[in-house]
C-alpha cells in the first residue's frame, strides 16, 4: 500500500513538473514576440473611432478626411465590417479600420495565412516584410509591402476580450518616413 502511495506521489510530481515545463515553454514562445510601446504625439492625431460593443478605440491621423460615401455604399461597408475609411486629397494617404469580429477565430487565422501567402507570391511587390509584436494588450501581425510608388501597411490585431481588427495605411512611398511618427501615434492610441 505504501509503495502505491509513493508511486502515486512520484507520478504526481512528474506531472506537476511536466505542466510547469509546458507552461514555461508556452510563455517563452510568447516572450519571443517583442512588446512595443508607441510614442503618441497628440498633435498628429484627429478624432477617435469607437467600437462601443467591444470597447475598442483608435485615433485617426490628423489632416485626412472621412471618405464621403452614398448611404447605400455606407450600408454595404458597415455590414462588411468597415468602421472608418479616410483619405487625404492633399497627399494621397489612405487609412481604414475594419472590424473582423464577424470572423470566427479559425477563419481569422485562415485569412491571416492567405494574406501572407498572397503578399509573398505577388510579383508586382518590390518588398514584403512581416512582423509580429504586442502592444496595448493586442497581438499585432504587421504586413508591409512596397511597390515603386506606394507603401502598404496592413496590421491584424487580436485580443482575447476585444476581438479582431484590421488597420490599413497606404501612402506614396516618398511620404513614408515623414508619416512614420503619425503611424506610431495612431497605433499607440489604440485602446
Explain what you see.
- With 191 residues, the protein is an alpha+beta fold.
- The chain has 2 domains: 1-31; 34-188, Mog1/PsbP, alpha/beta/alpha sandwich (Protein Transport Mog1p, Chain A), CATH 3.40.1000.10.
- It is built from 4 helices and 10 strands.
- It has helices spanning 2-32, 71-80, 105-121, 176-188; strands at 34-35, 45-51, 56-61, 65-66, 82-87, 94-99, 127-135, 138-146, 150-159, 163-172.
- The strands form 2 sheets. The protein has an 8-stranded mixed beta sheet, sandwiched between helices.
- A hairpin with a 6-residue loop joins β5 (82-87) and β6 (94-99).
- Residues 4-30 have low confidence and may be disordered.
Short summary:
The chain has helices at 2-32, 71-80, 105-121, 176-188, and strands at residues 34-35, 45-51, 56-61, 65-66, 82-87, 94-99, 127-135, 138-146, 150-159, 163-172. It is of the alpha+beta class. An 8-stranded mixed beta sheet has the order 1-7-8-9-10-6-5-4, sandwiched between helices.
Amino acid at each position: 500500500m505504501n509503495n502505491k502511495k509513493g508511486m502515486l506521489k512520484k507520478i504526481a510530481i512528474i506531472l506537476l513538473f511536466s505542466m510547469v515545463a509546458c507552461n514555461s515553454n508556452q510563455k517563452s514562445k510568447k516572450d519571443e514576440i517583442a512588446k512595443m510601446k508607441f510614442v503618441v504625439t497628440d498633435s498628429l492625431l484627429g478624432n477617435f473611432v469607437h467600437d462601443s460593443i467591444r470597447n475598442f478605440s483608435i485615433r485617426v491621423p490628423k489632416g485626412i478626411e472621412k471618405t464621403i460615401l452614398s448611404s447605400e455604399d455606407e450600408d454595404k461597408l458597415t455590414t462588411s465590417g468597415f468602421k472608418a475609411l479616410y483619405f487625404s486629397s492633399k497627399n494621397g494617404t489612405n487609412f481604414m479600420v475594419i472590424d473582423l469580429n464577424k470572423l470566427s477565430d479559425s477563419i481569422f487565422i485562415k485569412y491571416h495565412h492567405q494574406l501572407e501567402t498572397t503578399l509573398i507570391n505577388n510579383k508586382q511587390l518590390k518588398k514584403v516584410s512581416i512582423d509580429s509584436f504586442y502592444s496595448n494588450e493586442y497581438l499585432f501581425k504587421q504586413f508591409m509591402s512596397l511597390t515603386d510608388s506606394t507603401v502598404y501597411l496592413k496590421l491584424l490585431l487580436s485580443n482575447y476580450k476585444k476581438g479582431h481588427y484590421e488597420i490599413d495605411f497606404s501612402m506614396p512611398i516618398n511620404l513614408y518616413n515623414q508619416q512614420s511618427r503619425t503611424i506610431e501615434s495612431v497605433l499607440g492610441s489604440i485602446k
